[in-house]
Amino acid sequence: MRYLMLVMSTPEDPDLRPEDAAGAPPIEAWVERHYGSGAAVLGDRLRPPQDAVGVRVRGGRALVTDGPFSETKETIAGFDVLDAPDLDTAIAIAAEHPMAYEGAIELRPFWPLGLDDAPDGAVAAADAHADGGA
Hints:
The protein is built from 5 helices and 6 strands, in the order E-H-H-E-E-E-E-H-H-E-H. The chain is an alpha+beta fold. The chain has one domain (about 1-130): Alpha-Beta Plaits (2-Layer Sandwich), CATH 3.30.70.1060.
């Protein structure tokens, strides 16, 4: 199962403690371990929100807006695509990422086009995890 791992910067997180950030492992170790094993298959950093562009089509015309275009205290700083056998494995991989210590990680299972539900019940598993299960 593939998961999109959104790496979030959360500078205004009231629960962030300096000792959490200080305990973060180096990113190089995470990359070597998970890209080396094949569990992470694609990833990169993203430019800051002020470099973003929004695109919407309204009335048959493409409307383009310069960023930042949303009021948020979190920004997506990067992403990785994980190939994991299940949600628990994806969570374990995400929990080892340095930004889990000083930011936040969001995992989203891929939902292949043409399917009413994600394969292997990933959506149901993700829902169960969000409700405190698994």
